[in-house]
Design a protein that fits this description.
By secondary structure, the chain is an alpha+beta fold. The chain has a single domain, classed as name from scop, CATH 3.40.1690.10. The chain contains three helices and two strands. A two-stranded antiparallel ribbon has the order 1-2. It starts with 7 loop residues before the first strand and ends in an 11-residue tail after the last helix. Required for formation of the rod structure in the basal body of the flagellar apparatus. Together with FliI and FliH, may constitute the export apparatus of flagellin.
């Protein structure tokens, strides 16, 4: 019996105009490479096993399903906030 736990990673691309798309997914060494690249480029990393399982069903280049728009939008908004970014035309209260 092996104690090895498979590591998974998913990467999404969002340009601010179109629906986020799946740009990378992988297990173990590929997952570690995806995460290392994200860290290198200071991309925030969000961990959620349930969301990962849903997104892993997509093929590379697929848009996220409409049912996940709100969830993904909240994650993107938080990632932008962490990086000090604001949407075009955003006026704070």
């Amino acid at each position: 019996m092996s104690d090895h736990t498979t590591r998974h990673a998913i990467a999404l691309r969002y340009d601010g105009q179109h629906t986020p798309t799946l740009t990378a997914k992988g297990e173990d060494a590929l997952a570690e490479a995806i995460l290392a690249l994200a860290r290198e480029h200071q991309v925030p990393i969000y961990e959620n096993a349930d969301l990962l399982r849903l997104l892993a069903r997509l093929e590379l280049g697929d848009e996220i399903p409409e049912a996940l728009y709100r969830c993904i939008a909240e994650i993107i908004a938080f990632a932008w906030y962490l990086k000090g970014k604001r949407p075009v035309g955003f006026i704070p209260d």
